[in-house]
Design a protein that fits this description.
CATH superfamily of the largest domain: Periplasmic binding protein-like II
Number of domains: 2
InterPro entries: Bact_solute-bd_prot1, SBP
Signal peptide: 1-22
CATH class of the largest domain: Alpha Beta
Keywords: Cell membrane, Lipoprotein, Membrane, Palmitate, Signal
CATH architecture of the largest domain: 3-Layer(aba) Sandwich
Pfam family, one: SBP_bac_1
Number of strands: 11
Number of helices: 19
Structural class: alpha/beta
Protein name: Extracellular solute-binding protein
Length: 481
C-alpha cells in the first residue's frame, strides 16, 4: 500500500538545547555546539566541517573504480564536507554492516536492498530523513522507487535503481530449440510452457550432461533469491497479504516447492544445484552449459557483450572456454493461473544513526551525501554500467550524453516487466518484517538447500516453514487456504 507523505524542506539550522547529542558515526567534532537556543541561525554551523561515512559494495562492474572521483566531486560541491567511502564485497557486506551496527557505530550510509530496512529499523539504527530530504530531492525521483525506501511513516534513504530480477537466455540456443523468445518477452509464459521449453535445451552425451535447460544460482548470498522471485508470480506478491497474514503458509507455496523439485527431477537442472553460486552460474552460461540462467539483471547483457568483444580480440582475459552469447531477457513463468508479478529489486543508499541522536547539521549533511550518490552523474554512470533504468530526472539528463549499447527487445522486455512489478509495502510493520526475515534466514534458506539436494521433500520443507510461521505469528497471523 502506497501512502503519500508530506516531506518538509531541508533545515540547515534548528533551535537545539545546549545539551544536544553528537551525531552517529560522524567523524566530525562531536562536541561542537549547535546553534543557540534563542533560535538565531548560524552560517558557521551550517558551514562547519563534517565527514560522512559510506559502506559501499561493487554495485556495478566499474563502480568501486570511481570511489576516489566520487569523493573528490562531492567535496568540490560541498567544500566543508568530506565523503569517506569504505569498500566492501557483496559477500562480506552484510557481515561488515552488522558488526558495525551491533557495535552501535554504523556508517552514515550503507548500500543495501530495501528489503533490509525493516531489519535495521527494528534495531533502532536507521535515520529517518523525512524532515531533512528537500522537496527538490524528493521530486527528482520517479514515485514508485522512492516508496521502497519507506517503512511506516519514515523515509530511510534514497534508491539507486529499480530493476527486475528476471531470467536470461542464450539467443542461439533458444532459437535452435524452436523457442519464440520474442513472443515470451511480450506475452510471458506459464510454468508448464517453461518446463517443456527447458527440456528442449538439454544436451546429453550418453549419461553426461553437456548442457542444461536452466540453471539458477542458489548458494551463498543468492540462497534466498530463487523462491522469492518465483513466488511473486505464484500468487504471493509479498511475504505478507494485504491484511498482514504471512503468505508462505499458502497451499501455493507447497505447490511451488514441488515444481522447484520437479525441474531437477526432469533433468533440466543440475542435481548439484544447491552448490551453484552466482559466479558458477554465470560461468556455466558463458561456456554454453545452460540455455537459460537466473537470476538475471539487465547488466548481464553488458557483461556478455564485453566477453564477446574479448573473444573477438582473442583477449586472454575472456572467460575460459566461453562462447559468444547474445543475452536475451526473459520473464519468470507464472504458476497456477496467477498473474505475472515481477520481483522488483530496489537497492539504495540507506541512512543510519548510532546510539546517539545525530545533530540536525550532520543529518542534513548525510542527506546531501546520500542524494549525491543516488542521483545525477553518479547514478547515471552507475546505472548505465548496469544497463539499469534511470529513476531520477537528474540522472536521465546526465545520461543523455552517455553512450549505451542495448538490444531494443531487451529494453522493451524490461519495461514490460516493470509495468507489473510487485508494489512496495511500507505498510508492513517493522516487527512483522523482522520476524519474516528471521524465518527466511533460519528456516527457508537452509531447508531450500536440503530440498534442492534431495535430502528432504517439499512437504517436509513446507511443514517446517509453517511451524515456524505459527510460532512467530500465531494461528491467526498466517494464510490458511
Amino acid at each position: 500500500m502506497k501512502r503519500k507523505m508530506r516531506v518538509a524542506s531541508l533545515i540547515l539550522a534548528l533551535t537545539l538545547s545546549a545539551g544536544s547529542l553528537a551525531a552517529c558515526s560522524s567523524k566530525n567534532d562531536g562536541g561542537t555546539a549547535s546553534p543557540a537556543a534563542s533560535g538565531a541561525s548560524s552560517s558557521a554551523a551550517s558551514d562547519a566541517k563534517d565527514t560522512i561515512t559510506a559502506l559501499l559494495p561493487p554495485v556495478s562492474p566499474t563502480y568501486q573504480d570511481n570511489f576516489k572521483q566520487m569523493e573528490a566531486d562531492f567535496n568540490k560541491q560541498y567544500p566543508n564536507l568530506t565523503l569517506k567511502i569504505e569498500p566492501a564485497s557483496w559477500e562480506d557486506m552484510t557481515q561488515k554492516l552488522d558488526t558495525q551496527v551491533n557495535a552501535g557505530s554504523p556508517p552514515d550510509i550503507a548500500f543495501i536492498g530495501s528489503d533490509g530496512i525493516s531489519k535495521y529499523a527494528q534495531q533502532g539504527m536507521l535515520m529517518d530523513i523525512t524532515d531533512s530530504a528537500t522537496t527538490d530531492m524528493v521530486e527528482d525521483y520517479d514515485k514508485a522507487p522512492l516508496e521502497y525506501m519507506k517503512n511506516g511513516k519514515g523515509l530511510y534513504g534514497f534508491p539507486a535503481y529499480m530493476e527486475v530480477h528476471a531470467l536470461g537466455g542464450n539467443k542461439q540456443f533458444l532459437e535452435a530449440a524452436g523457442i519464440d523468445w520474442k513472443s515470451i518477452q511480450k506475452n510471458g509464459w506459464t510454468y508448464d510452457q517453461f518446463r517443456e521449453a527447458i527440456k528442449k535445451g538439454v544436451v546429453k552425451d550418453g549419461d553426461n550432461y553437456k548442457r542444461y535447460g536452466f540453471v539458477f544460482a542458489t548458494a551463498g548470498v543468492t540462497g534466498k533469491d530463487y523462491l522469492n522471485i518465483l513466488a511473486k508470480s505464484a500468487g504471493m506478491p509479498s511475504v505478507f497479504t494485504q491484511d498482514l497474514k504471512y503468505a508462505y503458509t499458502s497451499k501455493n507455496f507447497l505447490e511451488l516447492l514441488k515444481d522447484v523439485r520437479q525441474l531437477i527431477d526432469d533433468g533440466s537442472m543440475p542435481k548439484e544445484l544447491s552448490s551453484i553460486d552466482g559466479g558458477k552460474r554465470w560461468n556455466m552460461f558463458l561456456t554454453g552449459q545452460t540455455m537459460i540462467t537466473g537470476k538475471g539483471l539487465a547488466t548481464f547483457e553488458n557483461s556478455a557483450k564485453k566477453n564477446n568483444a574479448k573473444l573477438d580480440a582473442k583477449d586472454a582475459s575472456a572467460v575460459k572456454d566461453s562462447i559468444k552469447v547474445d543475452y536475451i531477457v526473459l520473464p519468470v513463468p507464472t504458476f497456477f493461473g496467477q498473474p505475472a508479478v515481477s520481483y522488483t529489486v530496489v537497492d539504495g543508499y540507506v541512512t543510519f544513526r548510532g546510539k546517539k541522536e545525530p545533530t540536525a547539521e550532520h543529518k542534513a549533511n548525510v542527506v546531501k551525501a546520500a542524494y549525491f550518490l543516488a542521483s545525477g552523474k553518479v547514478a547515471a554512470t552507475t546505472n548505465n554500467d548496469l544497463f539499469a533504468a534511470h529513476i531520477t530526472k537528474s540522472a536521465k539528463k546526465e545520461a543523455e550524453s552517455m553512450k549505451i549499447d542495448r538490444m531494443p527487445e531487451n529494453v522493451e522486455a524490461v519495461q514490460t516487466m516493470l509495468s507489473h512489478a510487485a508494489p512496495a509495502r511500507p505498510d508492513i510493520p517493522v516487527e512483522l518484517g523482522a520476524k519474516a526475515t528471521k524465518i527466511e534466514t533460519e528456516v527457508i534458506v537452509p531447508k531450500l538447500q536440503a530440498l534442492l539436494a534431495n535430502e528432504i521433500s517439499p512437504d517436509d520443507m513446507y511443514k517446517a516453514v509453517k511451524d515456524a510461521a505459527v510460532e512467530a505469528f500465531g494461528e491467526d497471523g498466517i494464510v490458511k487456504d
